[in-house]
Amino acid sequence: MPMPDVMKEYLAKWQDGGRHKVLEASDEAKIHEYCVIPHPDLDNYAIREGFTYGFEKVGTIRSHAKPHFMALNAAMKLKEDKELWVEALRAFCKRIELEVDASSFVEDVLTLSDGWTAPPPGEAELILKQEKEQAAEEAPSPLVMVPTGETTTPKHSKALVGPGGLKMDKRSKSKADKPEGEPRGSNLKLYAAHLAPTGSRCLLSLQEDKSVQGCHVVPRRTDDRTCAKVAAWWGLDEFDVDSPFNIFLLRADIHCLWDQGHLMFVPEPHIIDSYLAQDIVPIGGASSLAKLFEVSDVPVYKYCIVAHRDLPETEENAAFPRDIKILGYVESPVPPQFAIYNAGLMLSQSGPDGFEMALDAFYKLHNVDYEAINALNYMKDIYQRWVADDADGDIVHPATQNVLSL
To answer: Is the pTM of this model over 0.85?
Structure first.
């Protein structure tokens, strides 16, 4: 929420009911201060140890976001349960020793919001209408779209909708209901939630809120040629990166760390050894990911999560702390092939040094008799085998791999 003095200033400015510029020229680069008020129910959310909310340690924050927009956002929440938020605001002000009447502060925010969202007065409405008419006259003519008769197809356009629906899992009460439509965009996240034992919650923190995002394991940027290569190695007719099986659900800040290469999901050692010894490593015995939807029980795999040595620790007063080191194995329906691809891609670019210490510590803590450096090197070797071309630049199919190597 904006600071109380800002709300008083806005009340005085808009008390005439007129129209005023929201963005003054002098405000373009201005940084504003805000109160961070946590909802009381946050304490009751099921969150994994090491990832619990830390809002009780957060005071005010600074942001370039404009107070007008923050006030409108706050007003929408206040109208849902004003008394609850008044109490939360009162507790916040007491904690940071801010002398403010919480009830009056809330009323100021609501008064401003009501004024801004009310129908404009006659004079202001006339001015607004004239401005819209002038803008319409000055707007360039729209482009005329001439049909070419050609059909364009987006990349990775084939949907992976399972015949017969997704009635296959009874492992967890947190499983999400079957979504409607194709697994695309936000619907892709819903399908991934339906498959995952943790449902729509973050795989690491177990938080369930709007900040949880779908994260591609084999990156979305992977080109069609590479998808064709790995499909052959995985015994698939084709591989589409936009599959619910290629999605981890992670909190937004953890998603960012994942995209930056700070986190690695490592399958169990026996799986790594098995894939290293095989040519084709089928995914669930199916020729397509769509057919996995038909099975009565989707396989679930165990992963250890290791952080790169350059990943900084979260600050003591962080609102969203994370302690990767305390995590044991997590379970996911994402096939190990995809996790090894992601890990191998990172290891091919930066080597194993950044992850070796963390993986070694995990193995020792959980009594896993395996050398961390071997796991990392083997995953890199498997990945490089999957994406390799022959001397002429042609795709190496696993069926001819042994012949070509002679």
So the answer is: no
